[in-house]
Design brief:
Helices cover 26% and strands 27% of the residues. The protein is α+β, with helices and mostly antiparallel strands. α1 crosses α2. It is elongated.
Length: 247
């Protein structure tokens, strides 16, 4: 097993289960399988777990861990997580043999997007960079389903995998100081959605009227790791009606 793959202590109150060092759909299946096992049967003392591209970090309260006499809490927690990892790998490998099952447990969430103009000031740049028309960029961006690999950077920000390399574009040389909430952007071969207003350097191609961060709800984010996302182009008038509560 690679030194980059395994379960390791992360300070005195967390352990990290790492399945690889790249963005990969098979690796992501293992991440999702471990996350499900943690949700179904968390080890004693575990308080939170955070899935990422190729790893899951499990946070725990050392005072609530019940290790055998003479065994440090971190070592006992590593052992418990290793057992769950073995189960997760077996489950993920079984799913790999059943391709139709990969998407069965992931929600499909449609995200309406108004592309271009003031909502997508970088759409023309992305088109020129790839020798395409803006309409072709929109068709390519909205013409496939994306997988939510992880949530991070900002509350509810989804890192989406599966974008066509034909519309890949570099980050901006100078990030914007303020990106409006709902902005849909491209950075390299990835696409994502800004859930709240803030600075950012992704190329903006559109905006959604749907709120991704909902602090009054539980869970407080619309999307979660493992979901599928489908972008649906809408007109400016549809966007306006949506924000006015008429859509």
């Amino acid at each position: 097993m690679s030194a980059r793959v395994g379960v390791f202590p992360l300070g005195d109150s967390a352990v990290i289960a790492r399945f690889g060092d790249r963005i990969d759909r098979d690796v992501h299946k293992k991440v999702r399988a471990l996350t499900r096992r943690l949700e179904q049967n968390p080890p004693p003392g575990a308080v939170e777990w955070v899935p990422a591209f190729a790893s899951v970090t499990v946070f725990y309260d050392p005072l609530l861990v019940r290790p055998p006499r003479g065994v440090p809490p971190y070592r006992h927690m590593c052992r418990l997580v290793e057992e769950l990892v073995e189960e997760a790998i077996r489950s993920a490998e079984g799913a790999m043999e059943r391709p139709e099952g990969e998407d069965a447990d992931g929600r499909l969430v449609e995200i309406p997007v108004c592309y271009g103009e003031e909502f997508g000031p970088d759409l023309e740049f992305v088109a020129r960079h790839n020798r395409l028309t803006p309409e072709q960029v929109i068709d390519l961006h909205s013409g496939r389903d994306y997988r939510v690999y992880m949530i991070g950077f900002a509350p509810g920000f989804p890192y989406l995998g599966g974008m066509s390399e034909r519309i890949a574009a570099p980050r901006k040389a100078s990030p914007r100081l303020l990106v409006p909430a709902g902005s849909v952007g491209i950075a390299g071969a990835q696409t994502g959605i800004y859930p709240i207003a803030g600075p950012g350097g992704w190329q903006l191609i559109g905006r959604t009227p749907v709120a991704l961060f909902r602090p009054a709800e539980h869970p407080p984010t619309l999307l979660r790791a493992g979901d599928r996302v489908r972008f649906v182009p809408i007109s400016r008038s549809q966007y306006d009606r949506w924000t006015e509560g008429e859509a």
